[in-house]
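re: ur question from earlier - yeah i can do the single chain one, its not a big deal. heres the input i used so u can compare w yours
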Amino acid sequence: MPPELLFGGLGIGELFVARNAGNMADTATMGTIEYGAAVLGVPLIVVLGHERCGAVAAACEVVEKKTKFPASIGPMVDAIVPAAQAVAGKPGDFVDNAVRESALRTASKVAGESPIVADLVKKGKVKVVAARYDLDTGKVEFLA
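and the output i got, formated as tokens:
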């Protein structure tokens, strides 16, 4: 779901969006986020996971079945595996729990590991939050 449609009432250029499978902050995505915050003055960074995420489901499959994924898919999924491992065996849906955990971890990484974003957060100029989009209801739940 394009965030411009999800959050409604927004025109072209009102959101600065970086999208990738599994909502991970790899080098390119982190650079995009830093550019948005430092150069464009983006005040809010939302790490938005979504219900039934295929990349997160793949990471859960790695945890449960030791599945190996080929080419660049493997390292992309491997980056999500720690979130899946953290919630394995907990009550509730494994993939949904991992979606939430992954979004929280990525938001924490963005806020803490990027010196640019960390400085802007410290100065009160940027807020970083994690959220989960429900494909069935269309609602966004902001996570603690």
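The longest strand covers residues 44-50. not sure if urs matches, ping me
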